[in-house]
């Protein structure tokens, strides 16, 4: 929900530190301009203006940027949190990206962007392996929704790993990592293992 907050810039550096190229995109840039995304940023008006075709175009531009670096064309994975998790999974419904996998933390299951259906509606359209990480105590994403998402992926035959951390709230990784250090560490290690496994696949 926070857009290109400092946390996500630093997360891109964490990926770089383990040898992975990463780029963080600002999906509010089209409506908010190049303004600060600190904790005072009022994101909700911009959430309401997100258009999926524009988001997909921005994500494709980021992917093309990575492909243009000296490392060349390597397997790519979107990683998102909350709204970004929803967008990560929705991007997984698009064949053109050719992702090696899609990763989402506490993605809202009922968010219906542009009236094109929720993640639960479109889970069967995801074309790439899925890693989903959720807080078991997330009041905004009940466990039955997470279980329904997992069942729909199972039914469609999409490779997936869905993890729910008992007692962990929403944003346990990006806002409360110190309080939920064990869950956050495990989640980070799962992300790295998932990427490594699907780079080699």
From TrEMBL:
Pfam families: DLH. One of its GO terms (molecular function) is hydrolase activity. Gene3D superfamilies: alpha/beta hydrolase. Residues 2-197 form the Dienelactone hydrolase domain. This is Dienelactone hydrolase domain-containing protein. It comes from Dictyobacter vulcani.
């Amino acid at each position: 929900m926070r857009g290109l907050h400092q946390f996500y810039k630093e997360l891109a550096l964490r990926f770089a530190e383990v040898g992975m190229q990463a780029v963080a995109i600002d999906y509010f840039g089209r409506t908010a301009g190049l303004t600060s995304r600190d904790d005072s940023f009022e994101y909700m008006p911009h959430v309401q203006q997100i258009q999926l075709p524009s988001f997909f175009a921005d994500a494709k531009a980021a992917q093309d940027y990575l492909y243009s670096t000296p490392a060349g064309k390597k397997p790519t994975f979107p990683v998102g949190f909350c709204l970004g998790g929803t967008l990560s999974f929705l991007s997984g419904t698009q064949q053109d990206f050719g992702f090696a996998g899609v990763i989402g933390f506490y993605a809202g299951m009922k968010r219906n962007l542009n009236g094109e259906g929720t993640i639960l509606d479109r889970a069967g359209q995801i074309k790439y392996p899925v890693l989903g990480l959720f807080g078991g105590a997330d009041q905004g994403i009940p466990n039955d929704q997470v279980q329904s998402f997992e069942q729909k992926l199972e039914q469609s035959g999409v490779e997936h790993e869905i993890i729910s951390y008992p007692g962990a709230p929403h944003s346990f990784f990006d806002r409360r990592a110190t309080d939920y250090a064990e869950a956050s560490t495990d989640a980070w290690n799962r992300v790295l293992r998932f990427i490594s496994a699907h780079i080699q696949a």
